């Protein structure tokens, strides 16, 4: 008779976490920064597959890690938001509820499934000064094990999150205009891409939640516009 | 990949299908009306029109909803932007029609977000015709919805207009179209007034005159209500996107058309004397 194979739960969790961390660390980082006119999302991404996406009127999504996994999460988020907005009102779709739902789902996968999700995501909502109680920006980060935290100012996800976070500390503030915030963000991504001195604009994916827009606040910046803003 | 308690079984990019599959309780249910149900009476919307002009396409509609001989509402909106380059104008039973316009808007936005790029204008018109077809059982009970769909085709660089019938049949129009109870009169007016290369302000006046014509001949169509300050809805769509005409602009166009008519009348009287 063979002895039953035993691995302690601590060991299982540790192994899973290590597996997920390694997967995430292989990819590039993604930065979310508040600026005077809204929220800016930046990722080094030379491909046409997006890492940043629109969820709802004032809510956007950014993911790092395994594309197929975070893109699936993004789509589930869009469905969640559209159904909620249809059933109730557009103002009832909030980032906090969505971030909680992500946290539940990702935590669930982490404990139940053999393979954890190799992703980290950000859900951010831009404030609307016209709506009492909805004036403030919200940024949530959800990690592979479902742990959720909220951020003020900026938030970095991906392999070099801690390092980029300490780089941005002191260099960024929420009252900066868009152009300046973009430059700080690019400098941080260049800092991460050690060895390579520059990250050309065509390798950047940049999106905004622009307070000034009416209705859907999400906007993707084209390379031309990005060039102008970085030069100005 | 499925997430327990978050997201359902549907994995496509259509919002109306998502509702059907994962959230049937949120669907309209109009398509499930049975043949035995009595014919329903609900407020009806009335004249809407669309035509092409130099920069694209213009869609306009009156604001009156009637229930039999009674006014149900004086300021219903019948023309809606469905996204940055398309519009829907509804005629028929107001409840299902307004709901269809709302659903259409969410449908287009949902597809764009899921897929990362929007539908082609043809694709949007096709989707709308499927939604009308799904409404057929309700139409048999009297809840007919026959919208107009128009937009600017960014690939072909021109404005385009579609009309629909109750079975979801889709017909593209070359110049103009009007539908609703006063549609015939609006169409008659457009036949003489419409010019494909007209400017924006000329087109606005044409739209107002055609609607006014329909309002005079059809009791179910509302005209310009200067007492309550209710004006028709007029939306332009060109390469640069959607633009709704302001009330002052519509008022000016209306006043111009009235004064043109008064002058004509005075001239005719003068000639008769």
3D structure, described in words:
- The complex is a heterodimer of chains A (232) and B (273).
- Chain A has 232 residues and is an alpha+beta fold.
- Chain A has one domain (27-231): Aminohydrolase, N-terminal nucleophile (Ntn) domain (Glutamine Phosphoribosylpyrophosphate, subunit 1, domain 1, 4-Layer Sandwich), CATH 3.60.20.
- Helices cover 38% and strands 24% of the residues of chain A.
- Chain A has helices at 9-26, 67-87, 95-112, 161-168, 178-192, 223-231; strands spanning 30-35, 38-44, 52-56, 59-65, 119-125, 138-142, 148-151, 154-157, 204-210, 218-220.
- In chain A, helix 4 (161-168) crosses helix 5.
- The radius of gyration of chain A is 18 Å and the shape is globular.
- Chain B has 273 residues and is an alpha+beta fold.
- Chain B has one domain (41-264): Aminohydrolase, N-terminal nucleophile (Ntn) domain (Glutamine Phosphoribosylpyrophosphate, subunit 1, domain 1, 4-Layer Sandwich).
- In chain B, 38% of the residues lie in helices and 23% in strands.
- Chain B has helices at residues 15-22, 94-115, 121-134, 136-140, 183-193, 200-217, 247-272; strands at 44-45, 48-53, 56-61, 65-67, 70-73, 79-83, 86-89, 92-93, 148-153, 158-164, 170-173, 176-179, 233-238, 241-244.
- In chain B, strand 4 and strand 5 (70-73) form a beta hairpin.
- In chain B, helix 5 (183-193) packs antiparallel against helix 6 (200-217) and helix 6 packs across helix 7 (247-272).
- The radius of gyration of chain B is 20 Å and the shape is globular.
- Chain B starts with 14 loop residues before the first helix and ends with a helix.
- The interface between A and B is medium-sized, with 25 and 22 residues.
């Amino acid at each position: 008779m063979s002895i039953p194979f035993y691995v302690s739960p601590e060991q299982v969790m540790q192994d899973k976490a290590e597996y997920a961390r390694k997967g995430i660390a292989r990819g590039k980082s993604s930065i979310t920064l508040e600026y005077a006119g809204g929220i800016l999302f930046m990722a080094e991404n030379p491909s046409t597959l997006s890492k940043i996406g629109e969820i709802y009127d004032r809510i956007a999504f950014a993911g790092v890690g395994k594309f197929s996994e975070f893109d699936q999460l993004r789509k589930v988020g869009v469905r969640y938001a559209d159904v909620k907005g249809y059933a109730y009102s557009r103002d009832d779709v909030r980032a906090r509820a969505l971030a909680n739902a992500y946290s539940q789902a990702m935590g669930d996968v982490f404990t139940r499934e053999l393979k954890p999700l190799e992703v980290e995501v950000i859900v951010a909502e831009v404030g609307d000064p016209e709506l009492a109680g909805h004036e403030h920006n919200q940024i949530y980060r959800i990690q592979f094990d479902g742990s959720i935290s909220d951020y003020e100012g900026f938030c970095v996800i991906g392999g070099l999150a801690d390092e980029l976070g300490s780089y941005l500390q002191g260099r960024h503030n929420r009252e900066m205009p868009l152009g300046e915030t973009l430059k700080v963000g690019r400098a941080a991504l260049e800092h991460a891409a050690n060895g390579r001195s520059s990250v050309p604009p065509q390798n950047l994916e940049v999106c905004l939640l622009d307070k000034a827009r009416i209705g859907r606040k999400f906007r993707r910046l084209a390379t031309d516009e990005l060039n102008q803003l970085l030069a100005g | 990949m499925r997430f327990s308690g978050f997201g359902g079984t549907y994995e496509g990019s259509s919002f109306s299908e998502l509702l059907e599959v994962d959230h049937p309780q949120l669907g309209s249910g109009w398509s499930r009306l049975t043949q035995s149900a009595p014919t329903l009476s609900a407020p009806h919307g009335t004249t809407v029109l669309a035509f092409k002009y130099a920069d694209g396409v213009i869609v306009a509609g009156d604001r009156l909803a009637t229930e039999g001989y009674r006014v149900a509402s004086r300021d219903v909106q019948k023309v809606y932007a469905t996204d940055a380059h398309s519009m829907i104008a509804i005629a028929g039973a107001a409840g299902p029609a307004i709901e269809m316009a709302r659903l259409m808007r969410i449908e287009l936005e949902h597809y764009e977000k899921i897929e990362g790029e929007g539908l082609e204008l043809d694709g949007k018109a096709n989707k709308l015709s499927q939604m009308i077809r799904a409404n057929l059982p309700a139409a048999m009970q009297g809840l007919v919805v026959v919208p107009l769909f128009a937009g600017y085709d960014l690939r072909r660089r021109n404005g385009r207009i579609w009309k629909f019938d109750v079975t979801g049949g889709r017909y593209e129009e070359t110049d103009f179209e009007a539908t609703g109870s006063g549609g015939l009169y609006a169409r008659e007016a457009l036949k003489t007034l419409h010019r494909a290369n007209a400017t924006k302000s000329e087109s606005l006046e044409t739209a107002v005159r055609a609607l006014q014509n329909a309002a005079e001949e059809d009791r179910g169509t509302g005209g310009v209500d200067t007492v309550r300050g209710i004006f028709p809805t007029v939306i332009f769509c060109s390469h640069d996107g959607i633009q709704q005409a302001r009330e002052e602009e519509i008022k000016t166009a209306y006043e111009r058309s009235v004064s043109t008519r008064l002058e004509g009348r005075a001239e005719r009287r003068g000639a008769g004397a």
